[in-house]
Amino acid sequence: MTGGLYTWSNNQEDPTLEKLDRILISRDWEDIFPTAMVKRLPREISDHNLLILTSDCHKPLKFLQFRFELNWLDNPEFLGAVEKIWSKHCNARTSLDRIQQKLKLVKQYFKGWGFNLQGELRKKRKMVSEELFELEGIEEEDSLTQEQMARKVWLTKESLQLLDQEESYWVKRCHEQWLLKGDSNTKYFHSIANGRKRKNSVLFLESDGIVIQGDENLLKHATEYYADLFGRAEEHNIRIDNSIWDELEKVSDEDNSNLTKPFSEIEIKEALFQMEKNKDAGPDKIPIEFFQTCWNIVKEDIVQLFDDFYEGKIDISRNNYGIITLLPKITDASKIQQFRPICLLNCLYKLITKTLTLRLEKVADKLIHPNQTAFMKGRNIINGVMVLHEILHETKRRNQVGIILKLDFKKAYDKVKWNFLFSCLAARGFDDKWCKWIEQVVSGGTISVKLNNLTGPYIKSYKGVRQGDPLSPILFNFVADGLSRMIHKAQSNDLFSGLIDHIVNKGVAVLQYADDTIICLEHNLEGARNMKLLLYMYELMAGLKINFYKSEVLVINDNANWANVYAEIFNCQTGIFPIKYLGVPVSPSRLHVIDWLPLVDKNNKKLDPWKGGMMSIAGRTVLINSSLSNSPIYHISIYLLPKTIIAKMDKVGRKFFRWWY
After folding, report:
1. CB 34, CB 74: distance < 8 Å
2. Can you give the pTM of this predicted structure?
3. Quick one: which of 142, 362, 418, 602 has the fewest CB in 10 Å?
4. DSSP 8-state class, residue 338
5. Contact status, residue 595 vs residue 585, Cβ threshold 8 Å
């Protein structure tokens, strides 16, 4: 339901709100109208909201577009057809042009091939079903002959293979990660895919009090917003001091030699097969599974592409374009800022950045400060939570006043200034060749916004690292590391002190997980003002805008109401313990049962009873184990959960498994 959470109010000064009204549909009706959704209108005369059931079934059918289906990879004709197409001679100036021409031929051939295959599969499934039904009728009247029994076994096997192909079709569209394959349950995946499509559909957006409706108007609004977001960054004369990094924290000559050496076939193949599967393809519509399955066919051209990239013979920016898809960050998102932009990039471009990422990971550990725990091999997300937990408890135990500032960065990945990123890399001693490669893959790209299956015009990007690029997380760590080094330099100059300075020299002042940042300060008003100035200077240099309205300041052992004083200094809100850091409640005091109820609610959503009604016993078992091995195990790794919470979660699991009772 869009437009609100409740459908009834008693219209009092302190109102009681309830969700009383509903629209009931059957699963069969949903299959016919998969994108139908309920829209809530305002209460005017009645105390009930008017509900309208809407559907986009009136939209005209669009031109048949190419879409690569994963079940093609299991077809015995697939590899032979690809090899025949790929072996054709192409007149191309560069290796990139040659690959793009061959991919174009592949799409032209398989567009018709796939359409015909889908029709053949429907006919085959109908034939198998009818013949099985006929044999079962004979079996009821008389025993089957040996030939008929063998035929029945063969038909059953064919039926399972057809179901497996149909399952892979819907698994790709539902994007469920808990099951790899093998449930043979297309009804469940179909329902998840329909729900996902409804959730990602945008009926309206609000901007400055104006309601925007209509797909073309919505797309125009989204395109204008991201054109401004990725527009030219405001430049300042403030520069980061290269002396904040020690010589041991810089790249050695040996490291630079390994970073800039020629690319080998083994290295490229390793990067290719480490890339995640079942992900949406980029603008060229070719998924990573195509290159992985056809590696022996396409490897020569891909290796040549890397050789040309190494020698500077190709302009990689020609392949540096992507489509932004908008995923709602909250339920009933109504503003463009409430959507997360995920950039879908071409697989060839991502393969280059993935290969560069694997090289960079080998030297990043000594370059990125240990208080950064995101996307670094050998570092765990739990480390940051455990350190914060110990800081809070130790500060409370010693009865010291401690200041905790939880920062919220506004669109952190999208606002990174390229000049700041490149200057940080140069200051760390990276070779000019490596810096040029990074500059090539980061800058010069174009993006287009996709909303409600409409794609807008391409716009040029002038800042930011794109979510969806394998290289972006580790590059963002170098940007965030600049803040960490500035804070430690300020500590060494006694501008402020961190907490637990009796354990760590000068104390722990900052904890980072990508853009999730916690500032820990000793009680000192002048130190807090110095920190505020440092954060402001970092904003100007890096482009990362701190949203102080959403940031929170908390005070440990606050007996004199210092929280309001520090909130005024940082111009942010005061928070209360426990705070949620990296998805886990953290507090200097003991956590209570009520603090763990969000974990139970999250588990309830994963194990909705309607899912159990469409799944086999094995499928329900896998989903229960997956839900228990995901978020709960993460929390149990840090805390001993209350028995009440464990009992509630077990009850939900039992109810889901025995859904028919």
Report:
1. no
2. 0.82
3. 142
4. G
5. yes
Q: What are phi and psi of 459, to 5 degrees?
A: -125, 150
Are 628 and 646 a contacting pair, CB within 8 Å? no
Return the pLDDT at 44: 55
Long-range CB contacts for residues 49-55, cutoff 8 Å, separation at least 24? 49/4, 49/6, 49/7, 49/8, 49/21, 51/1, 51/7, 51/21, 51/22, 51/23, 53/23, 54/203
Confirm if 343 and 447 have CB atoms less than 8 A apart: yes
Residue 98 tokens, joined: 């040659």
Model pLDDT for residues 332-383, shown as the tens digit of each residue = 788 998 888 888 999 999 999 999 999 999 999 989 999 999 988 888 999 9
**Measured torsion, CA atoms of residues 137, 139, 144, 149, in degrees rounded to the nearest 10:** 80
- Residue 524: partners with Cβ closer than 8 Å, 6 or more residues away: 496, 497
Cβ neighbours of residue 426 closer than 8 Å, sequence gap 6 or more: 435
Contacts of 235 (CB under 8 A, 6+ apart): 419
Cross-strand bridge partners of residue 407 = 517
Contact 476, 332 (CB under 8 A): no
Phi, psi angles (nearest 5°) of residue 29: -65, -40
Residues of the chain with pLDDT under 50: 57-58, 60-61, 178-180, 182, 661
Instruction: Give the pLDDT confidence score for residue 61 in this predicted structure.
Output: 44
For residue 232, what are the contacts with CB-CB under 8 A and spacing of at least 6? 462, 463
Q: With the C-alpha atoms ordered 3, 6, 11, 12, is the resulting torsion angle positive or negative?
A: negative
Interacting residues of 243 by C-beta distance below 8 A, sequence separation 6+: none
How far apart (Å, rounded) are the C-alpha atoms in residues 217 and 485?
Answer: 45
Q: Give 3-state DSSP helix, strand, coil % of the chain, rounded to 5.
A: 50, 15, 35
Number of H helices, E strands in the chain: 22, 20
- Distance from C-alpha of 577 to C-alpha of 234, rounded to nearest angstrom: 37
DSSP 329: S
- Tell me the pLDDT tens digit for each residue of 539-558: 999 999 998 888 999 999 99
Contact 261, 43 (CB under 8 A): no
Rounded-to-integer distance, Cα 201 and Cα 212, Å? 14
Q: What would the two tokens of residue 410 be?
A: 């506004």
Two structure tokens written together for 518: 């916690």
**Of 52, 60, 51, residue with least CA distance to 21:** 51
552-556/402-407 β-pairing: antiparallel
